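hey so i finally got around to running the thing on that chain from the lab meeting. sorry it took forever, my laptop kept dying and i had to restart like 3 times. anyway pasting the input first so we r on the same page abt which one it is
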Amino acid sequence: MNDFDLNFLHEFHLGKCGSTAVTGILIDGQKLVVANVGDSRAVVSKNGVASQLSVDHETSKEQKEIESCGGFVSNIPGDIPRVDGQLAVARAF
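ok and heres what got predicted. didnt touch it at all, straight out
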């Protein structure tokens, strides 16, 4: 986390909450740019066929990045991998 993030979290006392999001922007009616965080997924349907536009952020695939930021990934049998034993997605806000 950078200094801005740490100051924001300290100042507003947000606790352990968060969200996920997906957004898209169409540039000049020609280029579609899509971004997602967490469990949100962007899809488009063309002639009744859905196509995935974003890549899921999976905890197990991002374990090294999570650990490099001071977190951990728990792998309790029968459960899904969780960040710091709680969050079931690798990225949220």
